[in-house]
Design goal:
- By secondary structure, the protein is mainly alpha-helical.
- It has a single domain, classed as MetI-like fold.
- Helices cover 73% and strands 0% of the residues.
- α4 packs antiparallel against α5.
- The radius of gyration is 24 Å and the shape is globular.
Length: 305
């Protein structure tokens, strides 16, 4: 083995040791943050439920049995052991509907966030890098969109396109790009005059190379934080649309639809609305706590790994 090869291997081992040390520090900080641990558990639980819903669900979520309607949860008088959290006004099992409702929330939120993140990031990169008319056009479009409340804009779009899964994802995706565009644009405006960008230009680097090879990697950390927090917002928005009857249509179980069904029975059958609302609250809280931890971990001003 020559000296050069030995030096290269030593450097590789050193890099691997640094990566391992970095991951150990990240894991240690995660364990020390109880809120982040709770958030991670909630996120993993929802994802696990969505993936393995057919195996976890004790009953068919859309099967109706009016003879078992409005059974209370275990521990209440008149409860049925086959239905841990009771049944709804059509005799459908609450636990099963909550588990299958996770599928809709995950699919809609992940798809909508992916669409809005890609669209907003591209707009922010080009708007911040080129400036001028490109920047003015995109930012004025963003201002116009921000002038409309999301729920009104969503109602208008879905009323025209129709309430189905694809249209809901499209609506939520194209109405959520603004935050990504503004944050990425601000980052690019501060980076495009840095010395390393000037050096790439001097070496003949094309605009595309500068944008995607040098600017984009530097805006990934804030994008990751926004994606995490936007997941929670999209879950709430999907539930709100379903609550209003503009989301996924029955009989497909959704958390917002379960809330809408249970509002009529709040006085007599509190569990119909309580459990879906509790699940939404815990999942959104968990995602926000995990997002706050990620923000702290990815901000070099707040932490050093």
């Amino acid at each position: 083995m020559d000296v050069g090869e030995g030096t290269a291997k030593a450097l590789d081992f050193g890099a691997e040791d640094r990566r391992a040390l970095r991951w150990r520090k990240i894991l240690k900080k995660l364990i020390e943050n109880k809120g982040a641990v709770f958030g991670l558990i909630m996120v993993m639980a929802v994802i696990f439920s969505a993936i393995f819903a057919p195996f976890l669900s004790p009953h068919d979520p859309i099967f109706q049995d009016v003879e078992k309607r409005l059974f209370p949860p275990i521990g209440q008088e008149g409860a049925n052991r086959e239905h841990l959290l009771g049944t709804d006004h059509l005799g459908r099992d609450i636990v099963s509907r909550l588990i299958y409702g996770a599928r809709i929330s995950i699919v809609v939120s992940v798809s909508a966030v992916a669409l809005s993140a890609v669209l907003g990031t591209l707009i922010g990169l080009f708007s911040g890098f080129y400036g001028g008319k490109v920047d003015n056009i995109f930012m004025r479009i963003a201002d116009v969109q921000l002038a409309f409340p999301f729920i009104l804009l969503a109602i208008a779009i879905i009323a025209v396109l129709g309430p189905n899964l694809q249209n809901i994802i499209l609506t939520m995706g194209i109405t959520g790009w603004v935050i990504y565009a503004r944050v990425v644009r601000a980052e690019v405006l501060s980076l495009r005059e840095k010395e390393f960008i000037t050096s790439v230009r001097a070496l003949g680097g094309s605009n595309g190379r500068i944008i995607f090879n040098h600017l984009f990697p530097n805006v990934v950390p804030p994008i990751i934080v926004i994606v995490t927090l936007e997941m929670a917002r999209m879950i709430i928005m999907e539930a709100a649309l379903s609550f209003l009857g503009l989301g996924i249509q029955p009989p497909t179980p959704t958390w917002g639809g379960m809330l809408a069904d249970g509002r009529v029975y709040l006085v007599t059958s509190w569990w119909l609305a309580t459990f879906p609302g509790l699940v939404i609250m815990l999942v959104v809280l968990g995602i926000n706590l995990l997002g706050n931890w990620l923000r702290d971990m990815l901000d070099p001003r707040l932490t050093q790994l």
